[in-house]
């Protein structure tokens, strides 16, 4: 049986509070009174792999995870948009996807999923819609306009041979894996690989992997 707890980890739009096992020692001590009971960490997104491992060792055996995964997808897709612009901008044969603009336009038209989370002036809220760790953009991925832009982006980049030099510029980790023959050079593979990197950290924390690299 697991009980949901807030073990002192949190994140804001652009900040992260890391796990401090000393501060959570009182919470850990409670488990000694209830054999068979474990904790579920309310929000463990963006924690360091070593912090996640410490949480599991301290009895927080269920690691709730959410926006860090979609944040990784968003990061990779934005990087692919830069690659698309550099390779195909001005090429009439390949209309650009304008994915970043399409996503933000949909979010502005329907602010229900982000307006109570993002504060500040128009510029600050626009920045948060793109880059906030809360990643409220995840609620808009299945909107038709967003999906059309995403599919056009992937189609455009599948149609060209992405130079290693620009891959190194925008996706250096994936570049290294392509060089080592560990990853196919296509945009779909890059997105999945980035998500797997996040999942590896949780696999390490829960003992399924010896490291997270």
Annotation keywords:
3-stranded parallel sheet, 2 domains, 213 residues, GI Alpha 1, domain 2-like, 5 strands, mainly alpha, two-stranded antiparallel ribbon
Q: Given this structure, which CATH class of the largest domain is correct? A: Mainly Alpha
Helix-strand sequence = EEEHEHEHHHHHHH
CATH fold-level assignment of the largest domain? GI Alpha 1, domain 2-like
- Can you tell me the number of structural domains? 2
Strand segment tally: 5
Tally the helices.
9
Which oligomeric form is depicted? single chain
**Largest sheet: spatial strand order:** 1-4-5
| Bulk shape | globular
Query: Which structural class fits the helix and strand makeup?
Result: mainly alpha
User: Rg from C-alpha positions?
Assistant: 20 Å
Fraction in helix:
40-55%
Distance between the termini: 31 Å
Portion in beta strands:
5-15%
Major sheet characteristics: 3 strands, parallel
Mean pLDDT: 95
CATH superfamily of the largest domain: putative tagatose 6-phosphate kinase domain like
Indicate the low-confidence ranges by residue numbers. none
CATH architecture of the largest domain, by name, is Orthogonal Bundle
